[in-house]
Design a protein that fits this description.
There is one protein chain. The chain has 268 residues and is mostly helical. It has one domain. It contains 9 helices and 2 strands, in the order αββαααααααα. It has a two-stranded antiparallel ribbon with strand order 1-2. Helix 1 packs across helix 3, helix 6 runs parallel beside helix 9 and helix 8 runs antiparallel to helix 9. The two termini are 24 Å apart.
Length: 268
């Protein structure tokens, strides 16, 4: 019997949505309390001017909290994915585990291979053990021919992998979405800031020109923050995708060895 249990996706969806709402609230508090602290500004010509980078970011406008939320979501979900994928890889080196299981299969030590899966744990251990259990069952099954038994083992591999992979890929769509959305939100903030900056020129004079320069620098903060969040999201998405692909490849490599071993053991 398979040891794999499917995680309830409904709970995970609720958790992800709730996490985004909480992070948005945190971003709003950070924006209004910390960035909006009067200590970050000084009055010149009757207008507040930033004294430091925090004040400059605050004057980026109401788009800034959304950009901070994007950044916080990417960081939070990346940490969550890192923990999940690390747990899925098991307690030891995947490479050593793969070599060990393949060596035990070459010696026809099926029980030893299953014990190695119990020690490794994680998604890779669960999937391989599930396939080995089916392998062991098919060795004593006299109701099927060889092709049917191989098909049953292959199906067990597909079913076990299909139960594990959605858990590994969970929330990656959020990170991938933020990779493009963050840039667009940043550009929106920049455009709004530029409109505001150019409107300040209507009065003319040196003061207006100075206000324009300040406004442009404030507007570009949105672009910088958006691009930064997008870059982090792209790096995180590609990293986690590569780790999942590596895990999937190792599972397929061991399962291929299991099928080869079964094919050599069973004559008909």
């Amino acid at each position: 019997m398979s040891t794999i249990k499917k995680k309830p996706s409904t709970f995970q969806n609720i958790f992800a949505g709730l996490a985004i709402v909480v992070l948005f609230i945190i971003a709003q508090i950070f924006f209004r309390v910390f960035l909006g602290d009067p200590a970050n500004f000084e009055m010149k010509d009757g207008h507040p001017h930033p004294k430091n980078v925090w004040g400059t970011i605050y004057l980026g406008g109401e788009v800034v909290p959304f950009l901070i939320t994007c950044l916080l979501v990417v960081v939070t979900f990346s940490i969550e994915r890192l923990i999940t994928i690390s747990a899925a890889s098991g307690t030891g080196s995947i490479t050593n585990f793969v070599y060990k299981v393949k060596g035990l299969l070459a010696e026809n030590d099926i029980q030893g291979a299953m014990d190695a899966c119990d020690k490794q744990k994680g998604s890779i251990g669960n999937v391989i053990k599930s396939v080995l259990e089916k392998y062991k069952e098919m060795l004593t099954d006299n109701t099927k021919d060889k092709e049917q038994k191989i098909a049953a083992i292959t199906k067990e591999q597909e079913d076990a992998t299909a139960l594990e992979l959605p858990m590994l890929e969970k929330n990656l769509t959020v990170i991938a979405t933020l990779a493009s959305v963050s840039t667009l939100i940043g550009l929106l903030g920049t455009v709004l800031g530029m409109i505001k900056a150019f409107s300040s020129m209507s009065g003319g004079g040196a003061a207006a020109a100075a206000q324009l320069a300040v406004g442009i620098s404030e507007a570009l903060i949105n672009t910088a923050t958006g691009i930064g969040a997008s870059a982090l999201a792209i790096i995180a998405y590609n990293y986690f995708t590569s780790k999942i692909d590596e895990l999937t490849y190792n599972i397929e490599e061991v399962c291929y060895s299991i099928l080869q071993n079964f094919n050599a053991q069973v004559k008909n």
